[in-house]
Amino acid sequence: MSRLLRIMLVPALALPMASVAAQSVQSASRSVAITPTAGLLSFGNYFTGPGGVSFSNQDGIGYGAELSVGIWKDLRIVGSVLHASSDWSFEEVPLLGSLSVDGASLWFYDAGLRYHARLGAPLSAFVQATAGAIRYAVDNALFTGNATNFTVSAGLGVTAHLGNRFSAQGLVKDYLASFKSVDQAAALGVEGRRAHTLAILLGLGIDL
Fold it and tell me: What is the DSSP string of 165-199?
């Protein structure tokens, strides 16, 4: 093969290969995945009890889902919704000692950015920062009410890729929010405060 012919063939072969590689990277960066999640939530004390009464939110089970969209290389936009329930626990209540009130429901909504760092096939670690809203509602025989407020969160996680379309995910996420008193609870001396909620979540994702 003449030298001139080789010079002409190299660009001709390189261009299709570069195009395929570029399309592959572009496809990966724009991939869309949905991940149902479930796990344990450790609630901070979003409210204080009346007088000297000690108040706390009991831990609970949460479930939800997240949607993530690749936008550039290892950077993704992620949005999630998470629902959980919790009991209120009052200690040192005059004449009663302790009292547990059920019916507290929480919804977390947030969106933000997630960055993946490859650990070697099939694992990758990620860090994320999001913002959104948290809704707290109570419905029981003693009182009813709800409140919604702004929340920010940060998270760390690991993803294990299971073939071309599936992945397993573990995520530890910290929500920070504050509330005013929940409607009728204010009459009982319950006041809102700023607190953390820690979520430990597992999920199984699928690329769409």
Answer: TEEEEEEEEEEEEE----GGGGGGT-EE-EEEEEE
Residues counted in the chain: 208
**62 lies in the same domain as 117:** yes
Q: How far is CA 86 from CA 43, 99, 105, 107, 143, in A?
A: 8, 14, 6, 11, 15
Reading the block at residue 94, the tokens are: 């005059």
Helix (H) or strand (E) holding 18: helix 3-29
The predicted model scores a pTM of: 0.78
Query: Mind listing the pLDDT tens digit for each residue in 155-206?
Result: 999 999 998 889 999 999 999 998 776 776 677 677 778 889 999 999 999 9
Are 87 and 5 members of one domain? no
Mention every residue, 6+ apart, whose C-beta is less than 8 A from residue 155: 127, 128, 129, 130, 171, 172, 173, 174
Are 23 and 81 members of one domain?
no
Find all residues with CB under 8 Å of 21, minimum gap 6, and list them.
none
Same domain, 67 and 17: no
